[in-house]
Amino acid sequence: MTSEDTPMWLRIVNEIFFLPDLPSIVRAGKWSKKMRSDNGVFHPPHKPSKPDYLIFVNSFFGLEIPRDLPPTAAPVGSLLSPTYPPLDQECGAFLARHTSVLYIALGTHIILPHKDAAKIVKANRLQEDGLKDGVICAMGKTCRADLDHSASFLFKGESKEITLGDLLDNKHLDWVFPFFAPRRAILGSVSTKLYFTHGGGSSANEDLYHGKPMLSMGIFSDQIANAARLVAGVAESLSKLSFTSDELYTKAKKILKSEKEAYSQNVLRLQRIAHVANLIEELMYNNELRFKDGKELRPMHLQTADMRMSVSKVKNWNFYTVGGLALSAGLGSMWLAGRFAWGYRGPVIGQFRSIAFASWESLKNTVNK
């Protein structure tokens, strides 16, 4: 997310990555301009209007990359309400019967292909290993449209296969598929141990407020960037294009068992930051949980990356030096090639004429035959 640990080649790629997509970007700009014109919209997009003296930005200062702020910007702490809708009867009864629940919520507008839904169900080995004993998977009617209800699964320890349709109809004691689930109430339950999310801004902020580790699978928009931030200590990421049930199982096991202590410490640190009343408490809680046995685990919470980088990297002097050398090498090579060609222009032109004449004679002989 910053250039602190980024190698030079990746910084160069980052500067030119958009070039292959430039035609698409231009077409999208023209299409957007035409659409606005066709609908009679002529004012500049995103034009701020006065008065704009007070603006709230939905930004978690434990999740975001630290950056310098102007004097008119001030972090005011969590704006999440301490109260929220309670558990409904279905989810409340389920959480009361289970002690280690995986909560899955991938967004209202995201429709999972059947093959991806099947991968999630097949990761049930977490239950076979005793790492979870229940699953709550919130899924609206639209999200179920592409699912094959006749697909069957056999869970270890059970003699009979169960279809996906039966799971969706809540006919398995350890699975529940509500059309809507009270997210914050579920995240606030002591029975919820892991949250599988798309990593949207609200989902990430609310999860960190309630202190649960995550599996994050960004689908679009800010979710991709949020996933890159969450994996810095409170989540494992999955790719929507290539994730497998084995990967889901392995990464969930890593959070719940093999590296549980590290994830728990980071989750607690961010949860405290989300709950604090002022910046003094925020710094106190952060400082307490970023050390272990006297060893610093991570930099200070609000320290910007440039404080840990050399001046040449902060100012991009090394980047500009490499670019200047590359440009000089290219121009120098062109100059040398031009000078060489000019110095030997007589023999080169003579050779070219000889080749052209020989080709012409050969062509005439071929035609005459």
TrEMBL record:
InterPro entries (UniProt xref): UDP-glycosyltransferase (IPR050271), UDP_glucos_trans (IPR002213)
Molecular-function GO terms, alphabetical: UDP-glycosyltransferase activity
Keyword terms of this UniProt record: Glycosyltransferase, Membrane, Transferase, Transmembrane, Transmembrane helix
Entry annotated with the keyword Transmembrane helix: yes
Keyword Membrane: yes
UniProt-listed PANTHER family: EG:EG0003.4 PROTEIN-RELATED, FI06409P-RELATED
Record protein name field: Uncharacterized protein
Pfam families given in the database record: UDPGT
TM region(s), chain numbering: 317-337
Domain of life (superkingdom): Eukaryota
Lineage: Eukaryota, Fungi, Dikarya, Ascomycota, Pezizomycotina
